[in-house]
Specification:
Length: 228
């Protein structure tokens, strides 16, 4: 159990519920981080769900000489309850994250890792029963061409389709539907919207199963959904 009331409140909701609330707050993409899917403990199956504040790690190319190099290894300072979010530059074939990193993250009581790029050592993550979301898998370590340039700094999603930044402390929610970034400054407002929205959808589903049309059930029950 987390001491963070936002984390505890979010346990009752899916990533889709979070996105629905964020759309009502006019947040772009409903916070959805495209193409990040579950690889461990199983590939897109089961009840795995992660919720926690983002601990961000920024990788850059080794020839990117203007960014500083942090002291120590990022994996040794992961806070308990965090979701590790690892950012890569575009068009990187090398994997960013392997089994030893999950071993250390799990020992530090991180709740999961999201890699905006490739991972490797897939079976090691699964043997740990440790949740990992990523874009794809690979074999090659990052040391050939990449280095860490920032820890707990804002990072931009590696996407040509979305302009979205993950800030340290933003809440990351990941499940079979994907990964959503809930900005910390919107968290309380978003949580307040979710309960009535989910309750309305449950009543709509019940009415549809009894034969009512979607349009009629939606009109009846969504009128009571809480608005911003």
């Amino acid at each position: 159990m987390s001491s963070d009331p936002i984390v505890e409140a979010l346990r009752n909701f899916s990533s889709c519920d979070v996105s629905d609330a964020l759309l009502k707050l006019s947040h772009p993409y409903g916070g959805f981080l495209g193409n990040l899917t579950l690889w461990s403990p199983a590939r897109q199956e089961g009840s795995t769900k992660i919720i926690g504040p983002a601990y961000t790690v920024k990788y850059v190319r080794k020839n990117h000489g203007t960014d500083p190099e942090p002291q120590g290894h990022y994996i040794d300072s992961v806070p308990a309850g965090a979701v590790v979010f690892i950012s890569a530059p575009p068009r990187i074939v090398n994997a960013l994250y392997g089994g030893l990193m999950s071993t250390r993250a799990q020992y530090s009581l991180a709740v999961g890792t999201v890699v905006d790029g490739r991972i490797r050592d897939l079976q090691e993550h699964r043997d740990l029963d440790y949740p990992v979301f990523a874009r794809d898998i690979g074999t090659t370590s990052p040391s050939e061409i990449l280095r860490v340039s920032g820890i707990n700094v804002p990072v931009r999603l590696n996407s040509e389709d979305q302009e979205i930044t993950i800030h340290p402390g933003d809440y990351l929610v990941g499940d079979l539907n994907g990964v959503v970034c809930l900005p910390k400054e919107l968290a309380e407002k978003a949580v307040e919207l979710m309960a009535s929205q989910v309750a309305a959808d449950e009543r709509i589903a019940q009415d549809i199963k009894r034969g009512k049309s979607f349009a009629a059930a939606s009109k009846e029950h969504r009128a009571s959904v809480k608005k911003p």
